[in-house]
Amino acid sequence: MLGLLTDLYELTMAAGYVQAGKADEIATFELFIRHLPRRRNFVIAAGLQQAVEYLLELSFTSAEIAYLRSLPQFAHAPGEFFELLARMRFTGDLWAVPEGTPIFPGEPVLTVRAPLVQAQIAETYLLATVAYQTMVATKAARIVQTAGGRAVVEFGTRRAHSPQAGVLAARAAYIGGCIGTSNTLAGMKFGIPVYGTAAHSWVQSFADELEAFRELQKLLGPATIYLIDTYDTLEGARKAASLGRPLWGVRLDSGDLLALSRRVRAILDEAGLHDARIMASGDLNEYKIGELVRARAPIDAFGVGTELATSADAPALGAVYKLVELESGGQRRYTAKLSEDKATLPGAKQIYRFADHDRVACAGEPPPAGGEPLLRPVILQGRLVEELPDVSSARALAARALDRLPADVRRLEQPEPYRVEYSQALLALAEQVRRHPSPALARDPGNERTETT
To answer: Which long-range contacts (CB under 8 A, 24 or more apart) does 290-295 make?
Structure first.
């Protein structure tokens, strides 16, 4: 039941389009990030799978339509509007960059071309799923980069803004480079490795800490990770070490992680457990992890929860979904916002990636030599044209693509901006629309998007 999972004004506009005889005009909308949050120099595109599932399943039940009929905003809506909702199915096209692709401001993450009502209603859901997952995937990429090869596990469901958000955060964090998640449902749904053993309550439920550790080892064997800071961290480390193998290692969740990790490492080594690993958790982010890595803390893995699932330092992404073209009666009208600080560029676009910069061009322009087109067809005429890669493939793509970005662009502090240029044809079209924003333009076959662009 996804039909009503949208803002009311999407539906009032849809009713208005029907009333005005515009419902079947073909609209092209682009979803992009207008401005990056502070301390971000790129974002990692994520959320495409959920966007595709939404479009392919978009429909309205009789109960949903009855609810809309009961609202005062639709008291004067034409009957054709409710009939249209009853048979609603997405029949348009979706072009998108693959999940895991680094994207920069002003570049379309996805493009929807569909009858106006369909394209309009989809706005809210597409923005929500793409912006949230892109935000978390980007945070994960920053954390993983700072960890310098040490494993990072996503721990954030209990701090996410809903249980459902926690599942998507786990998915996005894996795309961004985490090795896995504590969220079991995300593991089942998306094939993400899951991690976790026991909490402080496990230790507290036993009268003796050593007994708690011993029972955990019986259960988990080589997957055992002892949480050793319930009472006295160093004493907990000694008790864990006294049990010997099998174990994976121990986890520190509080205190001075640098000092404690060094002392715990010494305790484990003295017991001959040189292969036992140390995981750290507890309000970690890329900056705290960076400090530990630079200090050469003997920590093998990090569990990151709140800061990752909420992207705490940049909890919202300024994604927008804007109309760029409208076709009716054999004519195409290019559209753009001209308002200060929120101006947009007209026309469907393609992004071409070069070794050290991107070019945003009109969708039908001849491809420039050496440029890799990023926007690819995903749905055409309401049908999925290619199965989407799984999250492991998206994760691998993100790692490769980030490695190809210039190091100065990827660094955490004071990164260099990545160059995004606009083609002369696109700039000329923008100037034309700025001077004459209203008149329809004759269809230009040279600007038709094709599957080869």
So the answer is: 290/146, 290/412, 291/258, 292/257, 292/258, 292/261, 293/146, 293/147, 293/148, 293/150, 295/258
Residue 141: alpha-carbon gap to chain centroid: 11
The pTM assigned to this predicted structure is 0.94
Q: Are strands 43-44 and 419-422 parallel, antiparallel or unpaired?
A: unpaired
Asked if residue 446 has pLDDT above 90, the reply is: no
Q: Which two tokens stand for residue 195?
A: 């991690």
Report the greatest alpha carbon distance in the chain.
81
* Residue 152: both structure tokens together: 């990072």
pLDDT digits (tens, 9 = 90+) for 133-163: 999 999 999 999 999 999 999 999 999 999 9
Cβ atoms within 10 Å, residue 270: 11
Does the bond joining 246 to the residue before it have cis omega, within 30 degrees of 0?
yes
Burial of 340 from C-beta contacts in 10 A (0-12 / 13-18 / 19+):
exposed
Q: Rounded CA gap, 374 and 29, in Å?
A: 17
Q: Can you tell me which residue has the tokens 């502090």?
A: 413
Residue that is written with structure tokens 């070490």 in the block: 241
Identify whether the C-beta of residue 115 lies closer than 8 Å to the C-beta of residue 92. yes
- Adjacency order of strands within the sheet including 277-281: 180-181, 151-154, 301-304, 277-281, 249-252, 225-227
Q: Which residue from 304, 315, 317 is spatially nearest to 156, judged by alpha carbons? A: 304
Residue 351 near residue 372 (C-beta atoms within 8 A): no
d(CA 269, CA 410): 36
What are 281's two structure tokens? 């958790």
DSSP codes joined into one string, 203-268: HHTSSSHHHHHHHHHHHHGGG-EEE--SS-HHHHHHHHHHT-SS--EEEE-SS-HHHHHHHHHHHH
pLDDT band at 386 (very low <50, low <70, confident <90, very high): confident
The residues, any chain, with a CB within 8 Å of residue 40's CB and separated by 6 or more, are: 138, 314
For residue 234, the tally of other CB atoms under 10 A from its CB is 14
Q: Residue 140 is which amino acid?
A: A
Taking the C-alpha atoms of residue 37 and residue 31, their distance in angstroms, rounded to an integer, is 17
- How far apart (Å, rounded) are the C-alpha atoms in residues 110 and 28? 11
